[in-house]
Amino acid sequence: MTTMTEPTIAPTAPGRLGLAAPAPELLAYLEALGAWRDARHAELQSIDAAAMRAKDADSYTADVALVMSMWQAVSDRHDQLAKVWDSGRANATGREEMSRLIWGRLDGGMGVSLVEATRLCDSLTATLRARLAFDPMAGDVAARISAVRAGLYRCTELLRQHRELGADVASRVDVLKRRLADLGQRASEGADVGGPFAVLETDAARLERDLIVAAAGLADLARDREAAQAHRDRLEAREDALRLVAERCAAEIVAPPRLAVPDLDALGPVPAERGPLDAYRARLEQVAAALAFAESAYAAPLAERAALRSRLERTSDAGVTATVPVATAGSAGSAGPAGTATPSLATAFAAVTDAARAVLAAVPCDLDAARRLMAARDALLATPAPRRPKA
To answer: CA-CA distance, 292 to 235, in Å (whole number)?
Structure first.
């Protein structure tokens, strides 16, 4: 019989997703997780060696590989936590990031959080310990039964928290409970239950593993659905605002853009299943892009009109005499009969300014005409002053 040390139990994680846990709790958890990681690694090394020596070594390969990969993912996440913790220099934002690293999914597509991974690692390790150490003549059957019963209780709790997992899974738990009760009764009567009990332990551990992964998937689904609903709500607010801007643009601008305002009602409610939800989120992104394009198209004419009005007022009458040169009778550039003055540049500037002001004040506003008048006005501002004739 293979001798094992007392099992290592993962520490209880502080806080929750989106909440910056207190620094003392994070420090205690980080230290406990580091100790768990080191102890678990040593234990898994012993288990791996024992599994390789077993007669049916191939039957352990998949479970050993799984628990090793789970341990590695936890170890990598511990290092990320330590980096963010930065020897205690993590601020509130850093502590919130640590909560995300603790309660969010692990890297590598495992679909479970750090908390769930450590719990699953404990369960798988306990199963391997039991299989490798089990001896029907000397093994502590009562302790093994108690461990399996605790695992099935955790499965029941997961089912209670996630009823979406269905009746089929609940029936699997019930079957395992009946098998456990039967083996416990037979063991109490002195029967050799070593082989069947090892199979039961493996089945119970795999069911718990499947439930943890499924529950994590449901939690992710719930978070994604909540995020999709929040995104839709924001887009609906933008849609309402865009309709107002589009109506204003149509009323105040000549030849406004003719773009359809996306209708979120056409998408229907947010789906509750993974496949339809992913497709729905992709359509929301398309609607967001269409809204952004329409917002820009409808806001641009109104913004340009406001900019032209502002530029017109900045260079209005207050600066005319200092900016626009005045032509006099007989000066260079005069085109009228001898002794008659042509209209001065100032007069022309004033006329163009008045026309531009009238066009920009009109409702609806002809932006093409306003651009032409402002260009003519700019040209007058840039006209050099005529030279005075020499005496």
So the answer is: 10
Number of helices and strands in the chain (H, E): 11, 0
The gap from C-alpha 6 to its chain's centroid, in whole angstroms, comes to: 41
Report yes or no: 125 and 207 within 8 Å, Cβ to Cβ.
no
The tokens describing 38, both together, are 């080191």
Q: How far apart are CA 355 and CA 367, in angstroms?
A: 13
Q: What is the DSSP letter of 262?
A: P
Distance CA 318, CA 78 (A): 69
The span from the CA of 258 to the CA of 241, in Å, is: 17
The residue type of 48 is D
Across the strands, what pairs with 253?
365
Main-chain dihedrals φ then ψ at residue 90, nearest 5 degrees: -65, 130
Residue 31, number of CB atoms within 10 A of its CB:
11
| pTM of structure | 0.56
Instruction: Quote the CA–CA distance of 258 and 247 in Å, as a whole number.
Output: 11
Structure tokens, 382: 């840039």
The helix/strand/coil state of 109 is coil
Local structure of residue 316 (DSSP, 8 states): S
Q: Tell me the two tokens of residue 101.
A: 């690293």
Per-residue pLDDT reduced to its tens digit, 203-229: 888 888 888 888 888 888 888 899 999
In this predicted model, what pLDDT tens digit does every residue of 282-298 receive, in sequence order?
Answer: 999 999 999 999 999 99
**Distance from the Cα of residue 254 to its chain's centroid:** 42
Three-state DSSP class for 105? Answer: strand
Bridge partners (DSSP) of residue 105 are 113
Gyration radius of the chain over CA positions: 39
Q: What are phi and psi of 113, to 5 degrees?
A: -85, 175
Contact 216/164 with Cβ under 8 angstroms?
A: no
**Residues 6+ positions from 165 with CB-CB distance below 8 Å:** 158, 159, 211, 214, 215, 218
Residue indicated by tokens 């409610």: 269
3-state class of 203 per DSSP? Answer: helix
Two tokens, residue 249: 């643009």
Q: Which residue, 124, 134, 129, is CA-closest to 187?
A: 134
CA angle 8/140/192 to nearest 5° reads: 135
For 92-96, the CB contacts below 8 A with 24+ separation are 92/20, 93/20, 95/20, 95/21, 95/22, 95/23, 95/26, 96/18, 96/19, 96/20
Decide if 54 contacts 6 (C-beta within 8 A). Answer: no
Q: Are 236 and 264 in contact (CB under 8 A)?
A: yes
